[in-house]
Amino acid sequence: MMDMPLEKTPHSTPSGRIADLADQCVQCGLCLPVCPTYALDRNEAESPRGRIAIASALARGLADPAAGLREHLDHCLGCLNCEKVCPAHVQYGELLIATRASLGPSPQRPKHLLGLIKRPAWMRLLRWFGRWLALPRWKDLLIRRLPTASPWRAALRTMPVAAPAMRVRTDETHAEGPCVALFPGCVASVDDAEAQQAAVALLQAAGFQVSVLPAFCCGAMDLHGGATKGAERAARKVQKAWLASGATRLLSVTPGCLGTLRRALPDVSVMDPLELLAPHAEAMRFRPLARRVALHLPCTQLNVAGSAGALLQLLHRVPQLDVVPLPPPASCCGAAGSHLLEYPERAAQLRDRMLRQLGALEPHLLLSSNIGCRLHLGAGIRDQGLQWRHLHPLTLLAQQLEHA
Ligand code: SF4
Ligand code: SF4
Questions:
Q1: Quick check: CB of 80 below 6 Å from ligand 1?
Q2: Which of 90, 161, 170, 261 is most buried when burial is the number of CB atoms within 10 A of its CB?
Q3: Which residue has the higher pLDDT, 259 or 171?
Q4: How far, in Å, CA of 274 to CA of 302, rounded?
């Protein structure tokens, strides 16, 4: 008998998969109260349930991805608060990635600016050049001249223009103990090098050898922005760097990178260093710090890394430190990868709402693990003339570590 070509099941096509994922939704609406964009607009199309309906209609060819319709999908922050509370276990994150991949990058996506931000060497060079041109002095004038919705304006407001203070050193390893690899990322390798160095110091104090991988983008901004080819290239780069590391685990101090790293390395244990450090918390000694710190838990730390408990456990080891997390329900600061560049006004609305909540805690310091969130919140802190410093929690822990 001749082999007949099998008819493709809907599941084997991208739109079939999107339709299947969307069909998991029972439309109960339990996700609406935890969705930050629904809280902002009170519009069903800006809710998880509304977005699932839009994705389903697009995948089935029942709607046209006209700008107005796709914009509701583009506004999504990918915070995954909805996935966390969903009783039907809808894989909203997968649905969003697949839908954005099928639609391609959004018209709002600042391709050239992201191309720059994703290259740490270029960012360092540009910052040195900016300093040479005395950019910090005329930055405000430049910002005022750019249109309010310009992604370049948002980047200038958010990104530091001073030359990066340090690089994470790669020459230190502990002689004994399991070897773990640290993934420095792109923005974090430039603007959170202090946190990376802190992670190295804490991990070594806990008995691990640390191998620091080269700095490059994990591909998260491409993956979540529908730029599939860029995301695939980044995944291959991650796989190559991992294979060369000879480590047993991959770590990132930036929870926003973890989901993408896990996709690239499905058989590897990829985690937040806090999770690895927490079991050693009892053996670590920290100097007292009489300060009240407001703790911002990024969406990716809560919903992807799952390291909030480990973080609290470690911070509670610092004598006299008063740690005050933001009261529930968890929200999003609006940074959300490249969202703060694509929709700066919406991002600022979400951030200012969060800063009001943080202000009520009357903190001396703000802690947050995600560099994107911290830069975005930091811009709001500066705009409002507030005096809080902001740090990665690992930086604070390493500063207080007794033998450091
Ligand atoms: S909670 Fe889950 S099932 Fe209910 S509307 Fe939201 S996504 Fe759909
Ligand atoms: S990922 Fe966040 S912003 Fe997007 S629909 Fe879910 S809860 Fe709303």
A1: no
A2: 261
A3: 259
A4: 13
User: What's the CA-to-centroid distance between 77 and ligand 2, angstroms?
Assistant: 6
Measured by CA distance, the residue closest to atom 8 of ligand 1 is 25
256 in contact with ligand 2, CB cutoff 6 A: no
* Position 2 confidence tier, pLDDT thresholds 50, 70, 90: very low
Nearest-atom index, ligand 1, CA of 92: 7
Task: Tell me the β-bridge partners of 182.
Answer: 212, 251
Residue 97's alpha-carbon distances to 53, 80, 315, in angstroms, are 15, 12, 34
Residue holding tokens 């070509």? 5
Region 66-87: what's the mean pLDDT? Answer: 93
From residue 37, how far is each of 74, 100, 255, 304, 340 by CA, in Å? 11, 18, 21, 19, 13
Which tens digit of pLDDT belongs to each residue from 190-246? 999 999 999 999 999 999 999 999 999 999 999 999 999 999 999 999 999 999 999
Phi (first) and psi of residue 35, to 5 degrees: -90, 115
| pLDDT tens track for 148-163 | 999 999 999 998 866 5
User: Per-residue pLDDT tens for 164-183?
Assistant: 655 555 545 555 789 999 99
96 Cβ below 6 A of ligand 1: no
CB 76 within 8 A of CB 51: yes
Distance (Å, whole) CA 200 – CA 178: 13
Nearest partner of 233 among 110, 91, 113, 119, judged by Cα: 119
Please state whether beta strands 209-212 and 322-325 pair in parallel, antiparallel, or not at all (unpaired). unpaired
CA of 53 to the centre of ligand 2 (A): 14
Burial of 402 from C-beta contacts in 10 A (0-12 / 13-18 / 19+):
exposed
Residue ID of nearest Cα to ligand 1 atom 2: 86
Closest ligand to C-alpha of residue 87 is 1
219 lines ligand 2 (CB under 6 A): no
Instruction: Copy the structure tokens of residue 332.
Output: 């999003």
Indicate whether residue 90 lines ligand 1 (CB < 6 A).
yes
Which residue, judged by its Cα, is nearest atom 1 of ligand 1? 86
Cα 322 to Cα 292: distance, rounded to the nearest angstrom? 5
- The Cα-based distances of 375 to 184, 192, 368 in angstroms read 17, 10, 10
Residue 47: closest CA among 62, 20, 28: 28
